[in-house]
C-alpha cells in the first residue's frame, strides 16, 4: 500500500493548494452559491443508463451498452439515495477531479522538488480542464483507479502492494474494460524491467506477476459475473466483445483516423452568430488541443532518451524507477486509446504531465522558468474562475432541479423541451441522451445512441422501430443530416427504415435555433417531430 511518510503529510502550503483547487473546480461546476451548471457530454450516457436501471431495467438485456456497468451502477445508487438531480452529477465530477488532483500531487511529491510539485496539477487544471476535464463519464472513474494502482506501487513493490494494485486495475476495468488491462500490462513491463535491473530473480518475478494478475482477474470476475448472469451470455458477449469487434470502429470518431480530427475550425468562431470570440475560443482551444497532441506520446519517448543517460547515476535509481513506472503505464494507456482525439488523450495524460515537468526540471537553464510558469498558470486559473462566475448565464427550472446554462441557444432548446414535455412521458432522441435526465423522460427503445453507419447494425435499428411502434413517443428529436434519400446513404447506413417510420408517423413541428458548435457540422441541426 502507499507509504505515508513525513513527505506525504499535508503542510500548510498543501492545504492552501487543495483549498484553491476546490474553489477552482467548484466554481466551474456551480454558479455560486449552489446552482449546478448543466453540461451535455458523455456522462449523460451512464446517467441515463443509471436512471433506467433504477427503474428496474436490466443493462445489456433491456437496453444496449458496450461498456462495463461501473459508472452506470454508481449513478443508479446515487440517484437512489439523493434523487435524480443535476447537482448529484456535478458533485460526482467535483469528487472525481479532486481525486485526480490528489493523486497527481501524491505522485509529484515523490519525483519533483520544491514548489514544482504543484505544477503538474496546475497544468492539469489550467490547460484543458474546461473543454476536456468536466466529464463524469466512465473514463474518469477508470483513470482514478489506474492512478491509485500506480500510487500504491510508487514506494515499494511488495506482494501486498501488488495485490492491491491488481485489485485497483480490476476495478478500473469495471468502468472501461481495456483500461485496467492496459495498466496491468504497463505495470508488468515495469516489473520485468526492475527485476532485470536488480539481477533477474525468476522466482520472484513469477510470484509478483502471479499476485498482480490473479488479484486483477478475481476483481473482474466478481464485478462482472452478476451482470453476465442477469443479461445472458449472448447479450453480454455481443455488448462486450461482438459490438466492439465488428461495429465500434465505424464511427469516424472511434478509430485512429480521429488523431488531430477535433482541432477547432476557425469558421466556427467568425461571424455574428459565433458563440466564442476568435481569441478566447479558437486560439485557446487550438493551443490546448495541440499541447496534448504533442505531449502524448512524445513525452514518453523524450523520457526514455533522458533515462538512458541518467541511469548511469546510481543515486537517481529509486527516483528513476518511479518515473519508469509512470512512463510504462502512461505509454500503454496512450497506446490503448481507440480514437486518439485531444479530448481522449487528455484523460490519460496525467503520467505524461508529471514526466513533462520532471524533464523540464532537469535542464539547468529552463529550471529557472518553473516558478514563473507555476505563477502564470495559477493566475490563468484565477482568471478562468472569475470569468466563469461573472459571464451572463441562463437559469432554468427542470424536473431534475434548477440549473444554469452557459449559452443561450442551449438554454432556448432546453426551455422549449421543458415547455412541451411532462415528466415520465416517452420521448426519443437517437443522436445522444441529453434530455431524458433533466426532464425525467423515458426512452422507449433499447438504444441510447444511434449512428448512420455500421456502428448501428440493421438489427438494432429494427429493434428501435419495434419499440417505437409499441410505445410511441409524442416527440422525436431528429438530426437533419439523417434526412436523406435512400440512394444517397453510404454503405453501412441502416437508418433509412427508421427515417421512413418517422416520416410516416410524425410531422415536423419545430427546428431548434442553430447551436454553433463543431458537432453541428457532423449531425446538423436538431428537428422536433411530433406524432400525427
Offer a concise description of the structure.
The chain contains 23 helices and eight strands. The chain is of the alpha+beta class.
Could you give a short account of the major beta sheet?
4 strands, mixed
Helix content: 55-70%
Q: Indicate the overall shape.
A: globular
Care to count the β-strands? 8
The end-to-end distance, rounded to whole angstroms, is 63 Å
Question: Beta-strand level of the residues, as a percent range?
Answer: 5-15%
- Rg from Cα: 24 Å
Helix and strand content put the structural class at alpha+beta
Low-confidence stretches: 1-7, 516-522
Strand order in the largest sheet: 5-6-8-7
What would the average pLDDT be, to the nearest integer? 89
Number of helices: 23
Question: Could you please describe the fold and organization of this structure?
Answer:
By secondary structure, this protein is of the alpha+beta class. Helices cover 59% and strands 6% of the residues. It is built from 23 helices and eight strands. The protein has helices at residues 12-29, 44-54, 70-82, 86-111, 119-126, 129-133, 138-154, 159-172, 177-197, 202-231, 233-246, 278-295, 298-310, 317-335, 342-347, 350-362, 364-367, 370-390, 408-420, 436-439, 458-470, 496-505, 520-523, and strands at residues 30-31, 35-36, 394-398, 401-405, 427-428, 475-479, 506-511, 526-531. Strands 5-6-8-7 form a four-stranded mixed β-sheet. A two-stranded antiparallel sheet has the order 1-2. A two-stranded antiparallel sheet has the order 3-4. A hairpin with a 2-residue loop joins strand 3 and strand 4 (401-405). The longest helix is centred in the middle third of the chain and has 30 residues, at 202-231. The chain is globular. Mean pLDDT is 89; it is low at 1-7 and 516-522.
